[in-house]
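Supplementary material to the annual report.
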Amino acid sequence: MINAVGREIPEKIGNYVVKPYAGPREAIEAEQPVCSRRKPSKRAAAENKLMPDLKSAIQACGLKDGMTISFHHSFREGDKIIVQVLSCIKELGIKGLRFAPSAVVNIKNPSIVDFVKDGTINRIQASGICGELGDAVVDGLELSEPVILRPHGARPHAIETGDLSIDVAFIGASAADDFGNCTGQIGPNACGSLGYSFIDSTNAENVVVITDNIVPFPCVPTSISQMYVDYVVKVDEIGDPKKIGAGATRMTKNPRDLLIAQRCADIMAASRLFKDGYSFQTGAGAIPVACTNYLADYTEQAGIQASFALGGMTGAIVEMHKRGLLRSMLCSQSFDAVAARAIAEYPNIVEIDNSMYANMFNKSCALDKLNFGVLGALEVDTDFNINILTGSSGEMMGGLGGGPDVADGADISIVTLPIIRGRIPSVVDKVFTCCTPGSSVAVVVTEAGIALNPKHKNYEMLKEDLDAAGIKTVSIEYLRDMAYSLTGVPKPVETTDKITCIVEYRDGTVIDVIRQIKRD
Amino acid sequence: MINAVGREIPEKIGNYVVKPYAGPREAIEAEQPVCSRRKPSKRAAAENKLMPDLKSAIQACGLKDGMTISFHHSFREGDKIIVQVLSCIKELGIKGLRFAPSAVVNIKNPSIVDFVKDGTINRIQASGICGELGDAVVDGLELSEPVILRPHGARPHAIETGDLSIDVAFIGASAADDFGNCTGQIGPNACGSLGYSFIDSTNAENVVVITDNIVPFPCVPTSISQMYVDYVVKVDEIGDPKKIGAGATRMTKNPRDLLIAQRCADIMAASRLFKDGYSFQTGAGAIPVACTNYLADYTEQAGIQASFALGGMTGAIVEMHKRGLLRSMLCSQSFDAVAARAIAEYPNIVEIDNSMYANMFNKSCALDKLNFGVLGALEVDTDFNINILTGSSGEMMGGLGGGPDVADGADISIVTLPIIRGRIPSVVDKVFTCCTPGSSVAVVVTEAGIALNPKHKNYEMLKEDLDAAGIKTVSIEYLRDMAYSLTGVPKPVETTDKITCIVEYRDGTVIDVIRQIKRD
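Predicted assembly:
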């Protein structure tokens, strides 16, 4: 069958029954109460939760072959928890696990691939699997079912419906007390918001907090409460906060990126929604950080204050808050060490549940209130569909993150990307992997021009505002032609019939699949 | 049948199947996953949650005859929400509701009795029903089943098991935004912690936030997230914070109360558990406030710092925190206006879920870490059983509150009371209503002496410590004899066979029942 973004998808993929993407908010499921696997405990009050080592905690949880384990990815490339836990599980001889972290960031020596090859893991669900694992998957790594990739907003719903039922959640925390109250906001290896793990803590059957910093009871601030925690384990090191992100508010000096960032800020400042109390999400990376700084200046010049920034936070956004240009920050993750530590320091920087951030099946999520969302992309096509997963030869270059959620939730969603990267065009006829439907993308900003999506719900408003501000726009086809004129028309990536990844949309439907890359 | 505190209780009371109290931690139920009635929502993102009035919100929730509604009691006698909501429900002609607030505090003109008599309410569950309602109940007010009285720790478990399944939770908040993020910490009518409502918000099918103070999105601090809220209603006034409690840190001048408070602090300071990092709960009222002040002085003299105070907070405890004698406060309710506003002001004063505070079926609750718990009582008997509900002629004088939970959780539980009140003895042969089993009471402190419970788990330790400090003790029988010598032996309260209230213990078993009072 063909879904609403024109992708051909089988009705069933193994045991996975496909609900095809049917358009914005068309396929919202029947209501059913949320389910949790958390159990009232028989634990005696005085019983100690502090386990001598990871192995004891894993055994105490009763982890068995075939079960599901979860992690957060708040340490990104600095994570030292996942490999420690998987190594213990491997030593215990437990096999065939479903590995369901919020995301897999490039983990090496050993990599997750090694734990797949030795049979410890045979299924994977995450928002992204970039790095060695992703590349191995699209090249046909043997798993017992395709990887399910879900944007941040879809994961909590999958957990609450029972589609993703977690046996043991392992939660890394930079401070924890012996009863399991924990946080990522303080301690030598602070990673900031634990927003991804809230849903795991309340819904998993077993919850293990892993820390390198036991603090006296009670751990304050408390991000996750002891009431959800079964065991606490102290390890030598949980992660390296220097590798959380690029760090701080340093501006890029790349003139192309600066140009794109400036144009992105120009668009926001030109919008009628840019007024006292406006809200935004910019995200991580060179362009977003630069864009945040330009936006701060615009805000100061206009003599207004933004009401909230949402999602992943950077030092640049903290700086805007410190300058009084931004009243609050709803922080579901921390992209750098400055942002990680700021939550404990400023009362209006609030750690929020990732489900509160992006889950469209909640009684509402914060994205429903967002004016401007700035998004990165690997590719955009002439239908404004966005690819944030796969690179030019099909390799796994990114994760879904909250991109599809933000595009759908924000009044004005702005995709920023250069029209070419190296010799590869970024604006193309048809993206290799459709992650975000074009209908939810308002505008594409490149160094070669700005293209408005005439099919976006707020097109008329935005067009009028940009015209009034004298901001010129071009067609998306113009940008594609420019790109192709520099690179030539790209050769399509050839694939086999084997589906390696299922790409879900925020509503749980299938927006695309990734087939195994055919290598020469 | 006879339960473990010697109370005669039928095996069934109407449809209610009695699980008799079987002793401390003897009757813990089989494990089963927690259940929630919260449903993923079909609400469109842009749909407004702000309803024009209470009636519209009640109708939007689909409230029907026979359903269950809930409230918190954080405004205590200053509450202006419950009557407003019940009046609307009455006007809508909805009948036969189960009324399940965290507690009923004396509400007058109209009182809850009026809503029972007109058929709006026909069942009641709460931690206490003191005031007109309680008196009417023990005098035989017609309800379709006995009132179920549960201590604070038992209510969340009853909700999570589905025994108390809530159709519509009405949550009063002193600040809320139009998407339902709300708090009791700020605004003109701040009531402080919304700790009682957390469980309602996550488990009720419908949640209505009622405020007199709509703030710009996002409401910061956020105590309850929009993700759990269906509707928001603005009313003229939600409550009168001056009536939350006696207010501030004013010391009583009653020499008897000061003596009891001083002795209570003496006992804590004499204990080997009184060392750096100790923890306590003192509670509200004249004796607890005075006791907190004495304890603060002892702490200063010893050059130590308490790690946390737990439960209901007063200005006296805030003062101790400000003096640097107390590192943190885990606040499930705020007993006065000072404590209500302090949460937003001091980062180490933390608003906690009442379930985190006291629910023994959690993976742990904060009470499990408590060293000293100070409790009030209406009566204590020679088995150390405590009555915190009924007065000398059977009238409803108090609520269970967290008393039974604290007694069980604390290492040293200290009951403070005068041996007589007016011409009525407080130390008796047998309490009229057993709320807290004597086995969980370590010591009774009166103006006439201190009695240790030889059957308490920590008797030996405490006896040794008091002896070492030269603190004299007497037997509980001595205190009873003293009381009786002043008042004469009290005439037992006569009752009919009709059971008006079922008194549950924190583990969900039945510790006692209250029968209808026989009036002349």
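Residues 5 and 304 of chain A are 39 Å apart (CA to CA).
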